[in-house]
Amino acid sequence: MTVGVLALQGDFEAHAKACERAGLGRAHEVRLVADLAAVDALILPGGESTTISKGLARTGLDAAIRERIARGMPVLGTCAGAILLALRVEPHGVPTLAALDVTAVRNAYGTQVDSFASALDADASEGLAGLRAVFIRAPRLTALGPQVEVLARVDGDPVLVRQGHVLAATFHPELTDDPRVHQLLSRAR
Known about the structure:
By secondary structure, the protein is α/β, with parallel strands linked by helices.
């Protein structure tokens, strides 16, 4: 599988390194529609969701990514990437890819100074027991549709979810040495 990392904004380099740790090989940077055509799966990194959304629209990647997701391309969105996958966004919604039946509540865990790391209550059957996560201005996922499966929670709130081949984490798995969230991408076909 050839994995791409959206490289418009955010820490896409950390995701590329995480892909290597996860045994997914060297990730390709995706900045243009032509770059997207060369990958089998895509990671949407954290960053600032409004800025990334505008970049997607400016480059035409928004329509191209929607089309690839509709055809079954596995995708992982982390933090702002999770917001961009959501069907609904609160407050001050941004244009999204509308690929995941959830509402993403932006900055629900506070500002940058409220960042934290936490052990997650994770699905042992998915091999996620003992998973720790870093939250930075993280969104909260609410109003999950019936097809959305919760893989991990923190304080009862879903923080890692899957709907078919679409995965979303409200945290930053690229900031730890644990490869398991990125490895889920290879099983999301």
